[in-house]
Specification:
six-stranded parallel β-sheet; binds adenosine monophosphate; 2 domains; three-stranded antiparallel β-sheet; 279 residues
């Protein structure tokens, strides 16, 4: 596995790949969710690359950025054992050189959910993804359904700017009790970890009600909200039922909808989602 830090090194390593390339962008502190993306990329491409970069542009507070867990050595070992060919782990100054002022924005899709809760977050995501797609020129790029809005926004970005890449969405990997794997889970205390299953419990309640015919979006949101309210350590940031691709709020629900929520547990905000009506 080749590990590079600078863009120039990345370009020369990329130039040696003669077959299809799959890219897995990450912020590191890898878990089985990230590794499932690597495995899909490995199965579908001749070469696999990953990036590890905690992107300051998508954090709205310095504290959140500083608290984000990091373990580069362990990440590199994991990627190596998963047969990744190339890793780019740039310094901040390599990604955002002195005087940096170029950003990529996707408008409407970014206004609600995580984009609504975290001003500037989605602009940070679309900027870094654009930079990674330009730098790696992958044939396929792999993203997790765990960050549903991110996938929708990246698909829009790729279509709008005509990036020659196939965006592949991989299912959310969960712990046995339903908690979606996330690097942020490492920051939960034992009590908070127990409380954190409330996201999956809320989504499951909405899924059952939807399967039983509930088509009132407000009622489904109310149901999720009631489940979150049963957990004293949890505080809902948003709970939404939206169209799956446009992320628009819905009056009359179609056969598939996206249920998503963000819940604050102590200082940690966790997000999760489920496509209701998925066969
Ligand atoms: P991050 O390092 O959090 O930026 O995540 C890098 C990629 O891994 C993103 O495409 C995430 O959606 C994806 N990812 C994170 N957690 C999971 C999970 N539990 N299951 C599947 N994909 C995930």
């Amino acid at each position: 596995m080749k590990i590079v830090k600078t863009l120039l090194e990345l370009r020369s390593a990329r130039a040696t790949f003669t077959g299809s390339l799959g890219l897995v962008p990450t912020m590191g502190y890898l878990h089985r969710g990230h590794l499932s993306l690597v495995q899909s990329a490995r199965a579908e491409n001749e070469f696999v690359a990953a990036s590890i970069f905690v992107n300051p542009a998508q954090f709205e507070s310095v504290d959140d950025l500083d608290d984000y867990p990091r373990d580069l050595e362990r990440d590199l070992d994991l990627l190596d054992t998963h047969n990744v060919d190339l890793v780019w782990a740039p310094d901040r100054s390599e990604m955002y050189p002195h005087g940096y002022q170029t950003y990529v924005t996707v408008n409407q899709l970014t206004s609600g959910l995580e984009g609504g809760r975290r001003p500037g977050h989605m602009r940070g995501v679309t900027t870094i993804v654009s930079k990674l797609l330009i730098a790696f020129r992958p044939d396929r790029a792999y993203f997790g359904q765990k960050d549903a809005q991110q996938v929708c926004v990246v698909r829009r970005l790729v279509a709008d700017l005509g990036f020659p890449v196939e965006v592949v969405t991989c299912p959310t990997v969960r712990e046995s009790d339903g908690l979606a794997l996330s690097s942020r889970n490492a920051r939960l205390s034992v009590d908070q970890r127990q409380a954190s299953t409330v996201l999956f419990r809320a989504l499951s309640a909405a899924s059952v009600a939807f399967a039983e015919g509930q088509r009132d979006g407000d009622k489904l949101c109310g149901l999720m909200s009631d489940v979150v309210a049963t957990e004293p350590l949890a505080d809902a940031r948003y709970i939404a039922i939206t169209e799956v691709e446009t992320l628009q709020d819905l009056r009359q629900l179609p056969e598939q909808v996206l249920a998503s929520l963000a819940v604050c547990i102590g200082q940690v905000v966790l997000i999760d989602n489920m496509v209701l009506g998925e066969t």
